[in-house]
Amino acid sequence: MTFGINNAPSHFQRMMNEIFPEELSEGWLIIYTDDIIVFSKTWEEHMYRLSRVWTKIQSVNMKISLKKCHFKFKELKALEHVVYGYYRQHTKDFTSIARPLYKLCDKDTVLEMTVDRVKAFEYLRQAVTTASLLLMPDFKLPFKLYIAASGDGLGAALHRVQIINHKPVEGPKCFISRQIKPSEARYGASQMVCL
């Protein structure tokens, strides 16, 4: 397809969607114009999926530039978002809420769904399905950054200002949180917020 044609991107996207209908419906392939993202839980599964994609690309006489390919990454940047634990940054107090679930990763922890763990899971599931903050920001308006630190963790909220009904309305754009390391537990609050 010739470069510069106004509707070329939409035609190309439609063509890519028509080449990979099963893979897209199975939910492990994302295509955005000429970017193809394949994700899997295991290496074997990933290799199988890559071979399916490669076979289909060859079957329609398309070519891939290996210089532009990235393989075996746990996270990647797509459309200016880092894809890894994606909803974490859109869930207020994620680390504090998920703490009972994180404890399941500790050595010698009994794998048991306690009331706290079920509550945490249900809350996070609800938060993911009702994300309220993915409006595009107006970069002419200010952003506000709120930060907090405690003995349990660190957190920050980036709020954007939007004009709604001719009035500035503040709302969250993203949240960041993490547990503190044992060596950081000795810091005072003013030092912790600088982490």
Beta-strand content bin: 15-25%
Report the sheet with the most strands, covering strand number, pairing sense and barrel closure.
Answer: 3 strands, antiparallel
Oligomeric grouping of the chains: single chain
In spatial order, strands of the major sheet run 5-6-7
- Name the helicity range: 25-40%
Protein model, in words:
This protein is α+β, with helices and mostly antiparallel strands. The protein folds into two domains: 8-81, Alpha-Beta Plaits (2-Layer Sandwich), CATH 3.30.70.270; 85-192, no CATH class. It has six helices and seven strands; from the N terminus they run ααββαββααβββα. The chain has helices spanning 8-19, 21-26, 43-59, 94-102, 115-129, 189-192; strands at 29-32, 35-38, 76-78, 81-83, 143-149, 153-164, 167-179. The protein has a three-stranded antiparallel sheet. Helix 4 crosses helix 5. The longest helix is centred in the N-terminal third of the chain and has 17 residues, at 43-59. It is extended, with a radius of gyration of 22 Å.
Topology:
Elements: H1 8-19, H2 21-26, E1 29-32, E2 35-38, H3 43-59, E3 76-78, E4 81-83, H4 94-102, H5 115-129, E5 143-149, E6 153-164, E7 167-179, H6 189-192
Antiparallel strand pairs: 1-2, 3-4, 5-6, 6-7
What are the key terms here?
single chain, 195 residues, alpha+beta, Alpha-Beta Plaits, 2 domains, three-stranded antiparallel β-sheet, 32% helix, 24% strand, extended, Reverse transcriptase domain-containing protein, RT_RNaseH_2
